[in-house]
């Protein structure tokens, strides 16, 4: 019964997303091939969660000491991503290498997803190119 309720809730959350957001759903692999993330609906927007790391590790750089012992697999890299034009989303991005969250944006072009984290009002940005694998 719980499984049926969860499946129904997942279906409903997907069906209320704009068509462009539904195109971004799926599994993506980093340009280096060392990380995979799943883009899925969450909190009315999109989130990108790490699903696989070539070398699994802990979130040792997290700004919160209590989170430094959590595995990076399962950590959200992108969250609260809302539509901001065709195949574009803005929200928040978590950068495991420094343990900080920044303004984030994602832009999709076919099976490529450019994901960027920006600080200082968008003047300093760094990003990754992801390729759809599922």
Widest β-sheet, arrangement of strands: 1-2-3-4-5-6-7-8
The ordered H/E elements are HHEEEEEEEE
| Major sheet size, sense and barrel closure | 8 strands, antiparallel, barrel
Q: Helix count, per DSSP?
A: 2
Mean pLDDT, rounded to whole units?
86
Distance between the termini: 28 Å
Structural class: mainly beta
Annotation, overall tally of beta strands: 8
Spatial extent as radius of gyration: 15 Å
CATH class call:
Mainly Beta
Helicity, as a percent range: 10-25%
Characteristic key phrases:
single chain; 2 helices; 8-stranded antiparallel barrel; mainly beta; disordered N terminus; Lipocalin; 15% helix
Task: Explain this structure.
- It is a single chain.
- The protein has 134 residues and is mostly beta strands.
- It has one domain (2-132): Lipocalin.
- The protein contains two helices and eight strands, in the order H-H-E-E-E-E-E-E-E-E.
- An eight-stranded antiparallel barrel has the order 1-2-3-4-5-6-7-8.
- Strand 2 (35-42) and strand 3 (45-53) form a beta hairpin.
- The longest helix has 14 residues, at 2-15.
């Amino acid at each position: 019964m719980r499984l049926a309720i969860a499946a129904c809730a997942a279906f409903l959350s997907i069906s209320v997303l704009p068509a462009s957001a539904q195109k971004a759903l799926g599994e993506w692999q980093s340009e280096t091939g060392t990380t995979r993330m799943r883009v899925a609906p969450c909190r009315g927007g999109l989130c990108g969660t790490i699903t696989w790391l070539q070398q699994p590790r802990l979130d040792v750089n997290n700004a919160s000491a209590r989170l430094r012992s959590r595995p990076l697999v399962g950590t959200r890299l992108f969250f609260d991503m809302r539509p901001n034009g065709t195949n574009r989303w803005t929200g928040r991005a978590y950068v495991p290498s420094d343990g900080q969250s920044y303004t984030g944006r994602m832009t999709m072009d076919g099976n490529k997803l450019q994901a960027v984290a920006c600080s200082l009002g968008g003047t300093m940005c760094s990003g990754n190119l992801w390729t759809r694998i599922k």
